[in-house]
Amino acid sequence: EEASTESALEETPESEEAPTQQEIFAPAAEKKSLNDRLAGNVLKFGLNDRIGFVNDLFNGSQEDFNRTVSQLNTLGSLSEAMEFIETHISGEYGWDQKEEMAARFIAAVEQKFN
């Protein structure tokens, strides 16, 4: 029996080593779920920007800000987002009087789509 065990061991080429744990799990770690991919492509604001946008651009309405951000996150392109802002948001909230803050908000929207 020892001879057959030794010959079986000798028949296995040394170049075919067992894959390492890292090699086995690397492909799974690299794959992202749809939720992970979408989460990376949402509008994100720091606390100071969020407060500034709510107070200056949405007349203090956190609900309106959240609704707008949620809607923008569903759009598929920068042109759709800009059309939405121009058609539904900027006029309603008087963004033409708040150019600097509006430009910061729009820059964040542009970053989402780039």
Account of the protein in words:
With 114 residues, the chain is mostly helical. It folds into 2 domains: 2-37, no CATH class; 42-113, no CATH class. It has 7 helices and no strands. It has helices at residues 2-11, 21-30, 34-39, 47-57, 62-74, 78-89, 99-113. The longest helix is centred in the last third of the chain and has 15 residues, at 99-113. The chain is elongated and about 70 Å long. The model has no long low-confidence stretch (mean pLDDT 82).
Order of helices and strands: HHHHHHH
Structural class: mainly alpha
Strand-residue proportion: under 5%
| Shape, per Cα inertia axes | elongated
Beta strand count = 0
Main sheet, how many strands, which sense, barrel? none
Q: Kindly state the percentage of residues in helix.
A: 55-70%
Topology:
Blueprint: H1 2-11, H2 21-30, H3 34-39, H4 47-57, H5 62-74, H6 78-89, H7 99-113
How would you describe this structure in keywords?
2 domains, 68% helix, 7 helices, mainly alpha
Summarize the structure.
Helices cover 68% and strands 0% of the residues.
